[in-house]
Amino acid sequence: MKISERGLAFIAAHEGFVSRAYLDPAGVLTIGYGFTMRSRLFAAFWRARHGRSLVPGDRISREDANKVLLKLIDEEYAPPVAGVLPGVSQPVFDACVSVVYNLGARALSWRWARALMGGDKKSAAGLLAKTGTTAAGRRLPGLVRRRREEAHLLKTGDYGLASPWRWTPNAETRRIQTVLARLGFKPGPIDGLLGKRTRAAVRAFQRANPPLLVDGEPGPATMAALERAADKRKSAALTVLSSAATALGLFWQKHPAGFVAAAAAGVVAIGVAVALCWAYRGRLLKALSA
């Protein structure tokens, strides 16, 4: 069994096309439609074309990427599905190939696949929707959406290729806005909508993080860069807190009385700050929403 045209478009839409090599959220060098050197066929194609492995900054044309995608699916990702799930309908086959393309053939040994092999499509869809939604220990909205839409395709046969996810509030866009705001790029309200202010903030982030393409689109490369920037900020904050705790501990050991006095002064200062914020809450809220 071969993947259908709609199945191919479904996978391409979820992977997103990136012409320049980038590090994905798990730190794996990626290009095109999620191609990595972990793929035997892509590695062979790339080495035959360039005489070496993929390196940051390498480029691929969309025409080449489309040819590679079809070859990868036909020769590397579809056969394992056909081998363990013979006789399934085309939408079910396409959904399973999408899962294998994203998670690897090992996913066919997981609970959702066993339920599908047993003929329980409803349970298989329910389990699939909760499977493989993390990368490098983080639950990613993009993976959550992909699993949900694969499960929907498996269960209903609806490819949903005209899904308006970017034009309705959704968790993936809220995550983008939240990270942009934490990094100081002012995406506007955290409303889950990919509007003008959010796109402007995405462009500002892209300009500040070359070699990202500055187009205002939060594609795979930009999303991966955002997650790495958020991780760096979090690590820096934890380092500062750890250093401060160490310094306070040393101060306490040498000057216990002074430590108590300093702690008391800190509590008073926090209380005064809270009281002032409450007293001027109207002005503060107006300023924050401006």
UniProtKB/TrEMBL annotation:
The keyword Membrane applies. GO terms for molecular function: lysozyme activity. One of its GO terms (biological process) is killing of cells of another organism. It comes from the Bacteria. Residues 171-226 form the Peptidoglycan binding-like domain. Belongs to the glycosyl hydrolase 24 family. The lineage of its organism: Bacteria, Pseudomonadati, Pseudomonadota, Alphaproteobacteria, Hyphomicrobiales. It comes from Roseibium hamelinense. Pfam families: PG_binding_1, Phage_lysozyme. This is Lysozyme.
